[in-house]
Amino acid sequence: MESENLVFAFHFFIDTITLFMEIVTASILDLNALRKLENESFGKDAWPIFDLIAVLTFSGVIRIKAVEDDQMVGFVAGDPRSNEGWGWIATIAVDQRYRRRGIGRALLHACEAKLGVARSRLTVRISNQAAISMYEKDGYATTEIWNGYYNDGEDGMVMEKELQH
Ligand SMILES: CC(C)(COP(=O)(O)OP(=O)(O)OC[C@H]1O[C@@H](n2cnc3c(N)ncnc32)[C@H](O)[C@@H]1OP(=O)(O)O)[C@@H](O)C(=O)NCCC(=O)NCCS
After folding, report:
1. Which of 103, 111, 133, 157 could make an SS bond with 78 (beta carbons 3.0 to 4.6 A apart)?
2. Distance 127 CA to ligand 1 centre (A)
3. What is the mean pLDDT of residues 14-31?
4. Could you tell me the distance, in angstroms and rounded to a whole number, from the CA of residue 57 to the centre of ligand 1?
5. Shortest CA distance to 109 belongs to which of 18, 39, 35?
6. Cβ burial 74-91 (10 Å sphere, 16+ → b, else e)
């Protein structure tokens, strides 16, 4: 019983801190913040600035940020391919100071809801245990391994989830 109370208190605490976080559409005005987040989160895999400009401006791309204390603390982009019946989660990252508070999951759900397709797909480094755990917990399953997909030769896992609309 005591452990149930502790679990309840923990979830109440997490729900309360995520109350101060907003999930909103991003724009080109977020370029500098996104560049910083990408570099800190992905290092050698960070997208070049032209890709960041594209993701913040191209029509049809879903771009969503998490904001706390008036700062971008997370970002997700989605690429809907309606004629193919599925869409890609193109990138997702949360500022390391704000991780493990449900922001990644909230961004993922917001992007899935906007994809407007039956299935969501993504690729992840096979060594990226934090992201893989998040995706698996959220119903994603591995469908393929792309050998040597990343620049340094690491394999990529393709994961997929059926979406409910
Ligand atoms: C992956 C990432 C976006 C997760 O963001 P987050 O806000 O910390 O995630 P959440 O707090 O919503 O966690 C959701 C679930 O993911 C899993 N998870 C997240 N971080 C984890 C970690 N370090 N270790 C193990 N599981 C982890 C847990 O199952 C967690 O659920 P729980 O907290 O209820 O146990 C974040 O770690 C990140 O930005 N990583 C660097 C960029 C990156 O790798 N992006 C993915 C590229 S494919």
Report:
1. 111
2. 13
3. 82
4. 27
5. 18
6. bbbbbbbeeeeebbbbbb
pTM over 0.85: yes
Q: What average pLDDT score do residues 87-105 get?
A: 97
Q: Counting beta carbons within 10 angstroms of the beta carbon of residue 149, is it exposed (0 to 12), middle (13 to 18) or buried (19 or more)? A: middle
Q: Which amino acid does the sequence have at 78?
A: G
pLDDT digit string (tens) for 26-60? 999 999 999 999 999 999 899 999 999 999 999 99
Average pLDDT over residues 13-25: 72
Name the helix (H) or strand (E) containing 102.
none
Find all residues with CB under 8 Å of 12, minimum gap 6, and list them: none
Q: Indicate whether residue 93 lines ligand 1 (CB < 6 A).
A: yes
Q: Read off the amino acid at residue 115.
A: L
Cβ of 41 less than 6 Å from ligand 1: yes
Banded model confidence at residue 148, pLDDT cuts 50, 70, 90? very high
Domains and CATH numbers, the chain: 22-162 (3.40.630.30)
Tell me how far apart the alpha carbons of residues 146 and 150 are, in angstroms, rounded to a whole number.
9
